[in-house]
Write a structure and sequence with these properties.
Elements (H helix, E strand, L loop, with lengths): L7 E8 L7 E7 L4 E3 L5 H23 L5 E4 L10 H13 L4 E4 L3 H34 L5 H34 L11
Parallel strand pairs: 4-5
Antiparallel strand pairs: 1-2, 2-3
Helix pairs in contact: 1-2, 2-3, 3-4
């Protein structure tokens, strides 16, 4: 819970006070306040249920020893501007665990969030590659074996190339979306 929403410190279930639904999912906040999931805002519920879906898929993968694809149809549609940026990193982590993540959308905001996450991850990898390359140079200068570091740098390079391809595809989709959006002149403009 805390990974996707900093204010959430835990999730648990309680017997439903009305007894109709068996148990209720409850979110515990950092302040100690507890709120039933059904009383959260639509955006908070969406974030909670998506994170539970990813966790359940991870749990299922451990049991079955196979990671099935995670398919999301417009995952940001119910999120406000505060929570929307938290969704793509969650989906990115799911993809980094060896699971294929497929996102369907027709919204520029979703593509832009995917672009930001992919670009940030690409920059982080480039930074890590630079640090490791420096360490390779230092190890060689000292006459130490640098083969493990060099292998790690090579792996980062492969991942970086994959992310560059993803970033190019996302940017092309954003460009297509912008080019297909009509530029309607204001009513005050003479025709």
């Amino acid at each position: 819970a805390h990974e996707v929403e900093e204010e959430w410190t835990g999730l648990f279930t309680l017997p439903d006070p009305l007894g109709a639904q068996g148990e209720s999912l409850v979110v515990r906040y950092r302040t100690g306040r507890e709120v039933q999931a059904l009383r959260l805002s639509t955006g908070a519920q969406g974030l909670l249920y998506l994170s539970l879906r990813v966790a359940l898929a991870d749990h299922d993968a451990e049991i079955r020893k196979v990671r099935l694809p995670l398919i999301c149809d417009d995952p940001l549609v119910h999120f406000d501007d505060e929570r929307a940026p938290k969704v793509m990193p969650l989906l990115q982590r799911a993809g980094e665990s060896g699971r294929q993540v497929i996102v369907f959308t027709c919204h520029e905001r979703t593509l832009e969030a995917a672009r930001k996450v992919t670009q940030t991850r690409s920059q982080e990898l480039q930074n890590k590659r630079n640090v490791l390359s420096k360490q390779v140079g230092e190890a060689k200068r000292k006459g130490e074996d640098a083969s493990a570091l060099m292998a790690e740098v090579a792996g980062i390079g492969d991942e970086g190339k994959r992310l560059e391809g993803e970033l190019e595809a996302i940017q092309a989709q954003l460009q297509d979306l912008m080019l297909s959006t009509p530029n309607v002149p204001h009513a005050s403009v003479p025709t």
